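Notes from the 1:1 (GR / supervisor)

We went over the backlog. Supervisor wanted to see one worked example end to end before approving the batch request, so GR pasted a single chain during the call. The sequence is below; no edits were made to it. Supervisor asked that the structure be written out right there so they could see what the output format looks like.
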Amino acid sequence: MSEPRLGAAMDVRFGATVEEFLTYLTDVGLNHVELKREYLHGHPDAPDAETVGELAEEYDVSVTYHAPFRDWNPGSFNDAVRQSSVEQVRRTLDDAATAGAGAVVLHGGSVPRRYPEWVRATARENALRSLAECAAYARSVGVPLCLENQPRDEGKRRYTTTPDELAATLEAVDVPPESVGVTLDVGHASVNGEEWEAFVDRFGDRIRVCHLHDNDGSADRHEPLLDYEPIVEAVPADYFVFETKSVADVAACVGADPEPLETAFRR
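Structure output shown during the call:
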């Protein structure tokens, strides 16, 4: 891909159809959409993967998918939950391949900190096992996974919150970079007290997707990121995605009017 693509993620709270959102995105000069699995699960008019591909071609946009992250945990110490979570990632990869998407974003799992050490150890092993299984399936369908740096959580142990943790997870799975890349989430880096540049220094061209949002360092608020252009220039990603809570926030990022799509929501 010669030029990076800039777009936004569809959150289940947006309410619009994919086609309405694509109309708005392209009208304000954006050319990429990320489809969160939660949106596709929750919206009554969510398109199937074949239709997503047709819409992407019609609107001349690129597509990425975000694997589930609610009611889902590939690092569960309950192996039935773990297997179900992996299966959901496989189905997301299938849809991404059908739609011609460029990547699937993936979280790395978690375990409650209050649980005994042996439970936490099992959960960690399961998270690595799940990632390896998902990576193997990603290779088979030709769509790369991109493991995301997550925000810290006081109640849960997560495995990708810092450059060192993310690197350790990728190294423990021992998969080739072409099979599992990185999603750099600059808002998550900020709330963790990490510089996003540290992830660029560590992972370089392995970063394929970059999530753009902001916060004041106290919580992962997914607020508009207005000064995004220096990040786009510095991060060697293929896809840059505004990941905000409302269409008005997407509009704020690019200095556009949110009214056309908000009007469509109220129909």
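Supervisor's comment: The mean pLDDT is 93.
Batch request approved.
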